[in-house]
Structures are given as C-alpha cells and as structure tokens.
C-alpha cells in the first residue's frame, strides 16, 4: 500500500497539471462559498419587494449559512466542483496511456490489480480532500448561535464522500476505456448531460433513480427546494450506498478485465 | 542447465492475422539469446507476451521454471519497443518510479545513470532528451536493481554508431556478470556480435533455435569455374564433401560440409581431368545465411 502510494506520489507531485487543477478546485470553491449567502441574499423575490436576505423572507430565521442546513447547502455547492477532481483523475489515468507508462509499470513488476489499486488510492485521497474542504468551509462559514449543534445534519459528509467516490470512479472507468483525455472529458459531459437523461426518458423512476448521476443527485440533493418549502434531505439510505458501492465494484471489475485483455493503448 | 525462460506453443492472432504460431523457446541461464527475424515477424509480440503486456491466445510460459507473476518481472529488466517514461519528470524521478516498482534501492540510480552516461543530465526532463538519450535511459531503468534477466527489444534503435557500440559493450559487460540477456533484433551482425544463442522467427513461426555458431556459423563455400562447365558439374556432384551446388552466373557455388584446402581441391579436379580456371573459397556471410533460413 505504502509502495503504491509512493509510486503514485512520484508521478503527481511534480505534475503541474495536477497542482493547477487541485489549486483551482480549492481557490474557486472557497471564495464562491464565501459569496454564497450574499449572492442568494441579494435575490429579489415575490412581487419585487426587496429583502435584505432570503433568510428574512422565509421566516423561522432561515439562512443558507445556518446550521444544520449549511451542511447540505455547502455539500451541494461543492458538488459542482467535483468536475475538477474528476479532471485530475482523467489526466492522471490517460497520461499512463499516452506516455505508454502503464506498459512499463507492468513490465517493471506491477500486477494489474496493483495498477488499479494505485489509482484507487488517488481517488480516495481526492475524495478525502473534497470532504475535508467541505468540513472546513462549513465550520468557517456556518452561523453559530448559543445552542447550535454543529453536528446536526453533518451526516451529509458521508453521503457526499460516497458521491465523490462514485463520480471519480466513473471518471476512472471512462479514462481506462477511452484512453484519450479529450474523448473522456467529452464523454463525461455527454453522459452527464445527455445520455443518462435520454435512457431515463421512458423508464420508470424506481429504475432511473439508481442511474449513477441520479444517484449522486440523491446523495447530495439540490437544497433550493427548501426555499419553496419542500422537504429536501440527502438520501443516505443503505439501499443507495449499496448501489453506489456496487457501481464502484462494477467499474473496478471492468477496468481490471480491460487490463487483463491487454487493452493498454497504442 | 537451468532454464530462465520456457515458452510452450505461444500463439497470437489479431483478428484473422496469425502473428505467432506455436512458438516454443528455451532460454538457458547465462546465455545471450538473440531473437532474430525480419520486420513484422513477431519479435515484439513474443516479448510483449512474456512480459504480460500482450495476452496470448494459446500457449503458456514459465519464468525461472515457475508460472509467471508480477514478482518474477521484478527480477527482469526489460524494454519493449520504445522508451516509456513520464515526459514531465526528470530522468532521476522516472528512475525512482521504476526503482519503487521493482523494490530496488534509490542508491542504485546513480550507478545505472553512470553506466549509460546520463548522470550529468539526471535533473533534466525526459521530454527534453534526444532519442538516443531516451533509449539509454530505458537501458538504465532495465539495469536497476541488478536483474537476473535483461530483455531488450531493438536496444540500438535510433542510436548513432558510437551509441550502438556503447550499448553493445554494456550488453557484453552485463553478460559477463552472468546475467541472462534476451535480445530481439532484425540486425544480424548485432546478434552475431553479442549473442551466444539465437532463435529465428519468420511470420510468427519459429524456424530454428540453438547456438549461434551452429546456426549462423560459417559454412564453406567455393567458387569454381572451368572451360567445360558440364564436366565440372558432374565432377562436383561426385565430390564427397559437397552439400549443395548451384550455378551463379558463370560460376558454380559449392557448399562443403567441412573446410578443405585449395590444394586438395585442385588435386581432386585434376585427377578428374579438369583444369580449374577459377577457384576461390568464400566465407558465407550472415546476410546470405539469414535470407536462406528465412526464405
Ligand atoms: N495491436 C496490433 N493489432 C494488429 N496487428 C498487430 C498489432 N501489433 C502487432 N501486430 C502485427 O503483428 C505482426 C508482428 O508484429 P511485431 O511488432 O511483433 O513484429 P516485430 O518482429 O517486432 O517487427 P519489427 O522488427 O518491425 O519490430 C505484424 O504483422 C504487426 O502488424
Ligand atoms: Mg518489434
């Protein structure tokens, strides 16, 4: 494990692309999170009566930065930026094909499972970075009151963590399948925006809700419904997590089979 | 003799294209084994299979008498086709990755870089290297951790004459330490200069394998001419040592099973009443030998 980690760290520590993408992730997410409440707070609602803050409009003292709601709000906001983490995975994996180093790594003595676990380690680390950033931003930005229980609603951390694992594993799968970063990024967008919706079109909800991107939406749902008085909650049910883990297992299995069949790129 | 590598009926197809046909190789410990064949004959495919980067359709192989695992590959230093490194990393950092994979100590990096004369350039990025330097770096990587076997696919590809000579010297030096070397090449003189054993493949089929001097060794050729070529032909056929004879332009080329002095040859034909107008012995060159075997 330590050996695999060291191998992968050698590859990324001196990679400019890696640091630029990770830097963008943090640098973009943090200020936007800080501006989050201000942006929403300045929105005009209703028949034009200007409100200083949306929190005042929907009474009960609601604010996007209040505990416990801030956990979900922040997770949802951060979830948009997972694309940058996915790009890191795409670059790291497709590099191995374009430099043909995946062949050399195997020749030098990595097993095909080790090739996969090494990348899974990176996915784990990136997901943990995402979680740590979520916790940090939430704790910094949350509005504290005397009796605030900051842990209420914090279960979203796990839900968010699994959504990242799923998304990054999806990116890994696309990368080892398509092997060229341009194709992978194109396919990632195409799938997220078009393909999944297209196949969902005629299928009933109890099936489509388990499609990967839908599942991610269930794990980290859009909290804006709350403003309309709907009950929005992340669905960290055993069923969802099981399906999520099954997807990850499926992607890993396909990745392994592709390696075993010698799909090591040109 | 202990075997370093055995392959049993390796067969590979790409679609309908049969690339390897039942190739069975046997490589002894300590030998310098040349895998010789023209372009597209299946050398790289064979090496790819025994290094687990190309799956075979049929057949098996054993490293060190055992079913292969990634652990056996850690005892093998190998380069296949092109140097494969991370372009954005320095030579040294690339070797650290190889060392980490092979579980060789980092302290070995300096040694191998010095062998291929790249120590001064160790901090430079791989992508800034010339083709020859890239090739040398891959040889350095293959030497990391004192492997028991070195597998080299056209290691002198793209090198200048001096570079070719340097690589040959490195190979010979390494071979002297008892490290087994498997060398794929389409260049006969390369194989002749460094190899103790050779296997020749053509269109995916193994034609021969054995000791270099037995397979590519000299045979004895004579060029003969006389005024009466027909009589000469009859006399040649009656000569005991003759293996083969053919007419090439205006002379007979005669292949002998052993070396005989020109004096004795002259004596023989004289006794048959033939005066030779031309007698020359010629060492058969490898090029001809190779073409003959592969044709
Ligand atoms: N991925 C592939 N798909 C289809 N055919 C392939 C593939 N790789 C190799 N081949 C074919 O297999 C045959 C053997 O190729 P291989 O690379 O093993 O030859 P080689 O002996 O190494 O030749 P060279 O001396 O040119 O390096 C060739 O006909 C080649 O076209
Ligand atoms: Mg080749």
Ordered list of secondary-structure elements with their pairings:
The complex is a heterodimer of chains A (266) and B (295).
Chain A: H1 2-13, H2 16-41, H3 54-57, H4 69-80, H5 82-98, H6 101-108, H7 112-141, H8 156-178, H9 181-200, H10 205-208, H11 212-219, H12 238-260
Helix pairs in contact in A: 1-7, 2-5, 4-7, 4-8, 5-7, 5-8, 7-8, 8-9, 8-11, 8-12
Chain B: E1 3-14, E2 17-23, E3 26-28, E4 32-36, H1 43-50, E5 58-63, H2 70-74, E6 76-79, H3 91-102, H4 108-115, H5 131-143, E7 149-153, H6 161-176, E8 180-185, H7 188-194, E9 197-202, E10 205-211, H8 212-215, E11 220-226, H9 229-238, E12 242-248, E13 251-256, H10 262-271, E14 276-283, H11 286-294
Parallel strand pairs in B: 4-8, 4-9, 6-7, 7-8
Antiparallel strand pairs in B: 1-2, 1-3, 1-5, 9-10, 11-13, 11-14, 12-13
Helix pairs in contact in B: 4-5
Q: State the total count of DSSP E strands of chain A.
A: 0
- H and E string of chain B: EEEEHEHEHHHEHEHEEHEHEEHEH
> Which residues of chain A form runs of ≥5 with pLDDT under 50?
41-61
Largest interface: A-B, 27 and 31 residues
Q: Beta-strand level of the residues of chain B, as a percent range?
A: 25-35%
Rg over C-alpha atoms of chain B, rounded to the nearest angstrom: 24 Å
Summarize the biggest pleated sheet of chain B.
6 strands, mixed
Work out the number of β strands of chain B.
14
Helix percent of chain A reads: over 70%
The ligands bound in this entry are: adenosine-5'-triphosphate, magnesium ion
Order of helices and strands of chain A: HHHHHHHHHHHH
- Radius of gyration of chain A, whole Å: 20 Å
Oligomer: heterodimer
Low-pLDDT residue intervals, each spanning 5 or more residues of chain B: none
Into which percent range does the helicity of residues of chain B fall? 25-40%
Query: Which word captures the global form of chain A?
Result: globular
The number of helices of chain B is 11
């Amino acid at each position: 494990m330590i050996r695999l980690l060291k191998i992968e760290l050698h590859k990324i520590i001196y990679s400019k692309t890696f640091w630029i993408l990770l830097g963008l992730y943090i640098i973009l997410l943090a200020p936007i999170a800080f501006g989050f409440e201000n942006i929403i707070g300045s929105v005009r609602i209703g028949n034009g009566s200007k409100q200083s803050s949306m929190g005042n409009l929907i009474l009960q003292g609601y604010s996007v930065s209040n505990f416990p709601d801030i956990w979900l709000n922040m997770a949802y906001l951060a979830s948009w930026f997972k694309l940058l983490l996915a790009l890191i995975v795409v670059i790291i994996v497709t590099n191995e094909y374009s430099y043909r180093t995946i062949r050399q790594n195997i020749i030098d003595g990595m097993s095909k499972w080790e090739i996969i676990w090494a990348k899974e380690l990176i996915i784990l680390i990136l997901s943990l970075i995402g979680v740590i950033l979520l916790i940090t931003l939430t704790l910094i930005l949350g509005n504290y009151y005397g009796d605030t229980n900051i842990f209420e609603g914090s279960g979203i951390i796990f839900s968010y963590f699994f959504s990242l694992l799923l998304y990054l594993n999806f990116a890994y799968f696309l990368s080892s399948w398509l092997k060229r970063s341009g194709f992978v990024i194109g396919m990632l967008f195409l799938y997220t925006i078009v393909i999944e919706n297209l196949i969902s079109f005629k299928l009933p909800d109890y099936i489509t809700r388990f499609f990967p991107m839908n599942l991610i939406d269930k794990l980290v749902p859009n909290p804006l419904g709350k403003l309309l008085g709907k009950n929005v909650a992340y669905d960290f049910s055993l069923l969802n997590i099981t399906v999520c883990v099954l997807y990850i297992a499926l992607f890993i299995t396909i990745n392994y089979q592709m390696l075993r069949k010698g799909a090591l790129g040109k | 003799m202990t075997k370093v590598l055995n392959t049993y009926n390796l067969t590979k197809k790409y679609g309908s294209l049969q690339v390897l046909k039942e190739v069975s190789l046997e490589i002894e410990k300590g030998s310098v084994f040349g895998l010789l064949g023209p372009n597209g004959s299946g050398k790289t495919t064979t090496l790819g299979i025994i290094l687990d980067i190309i799956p075979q359709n049929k057949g098996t192989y054993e490293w060190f008498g055992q079913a292969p695992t990634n652990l056996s590959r850690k005892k093998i230093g190998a380069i296949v086709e092109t140097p494969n490194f991370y372009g954005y990393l320095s030579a040294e950092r690339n070797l650290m990755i190889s060392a980490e994979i092979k579980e060789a100590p980092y302290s070995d990096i300096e040694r191998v870089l010095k062998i291929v004369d790249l120590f001064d350039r160790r901090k430079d990025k791989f992508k800034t290297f010339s083709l020859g330097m890239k090739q040398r770096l891959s040889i350095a990587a293959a030497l990391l951790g004192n492997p028991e076997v070195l597998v080299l696919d056209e290691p002198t590809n793209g090198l200048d004459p001096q570079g070719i000579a340097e690589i040959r010297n490195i190979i010979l030096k390494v071979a002297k330490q008892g490290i087994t070397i498997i060398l794929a090449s389409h260049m006969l003189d390369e194989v002749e200069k460094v190899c103790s054993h050779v296997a020749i493949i053509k269109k995916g089929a193994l034609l021969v394998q054995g000791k270099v001097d037995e397979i590519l060794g000299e045979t004895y050729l004579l060029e003969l001419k006389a005024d009466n070529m027909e009589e000469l032909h009859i006399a040649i056929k009656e000569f005991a040592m003759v293996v083969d004879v053919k007419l090439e332009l205006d002379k007979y080329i005669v292949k002998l099973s052993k070396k005989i002095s020109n004096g004795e040859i002259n004596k023989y034909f004289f006794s048959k009443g033939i005066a030779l107008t031309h007698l020359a012995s010629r060492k058969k060159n490898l090029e001809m030998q190779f073409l003959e075997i592969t044709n």
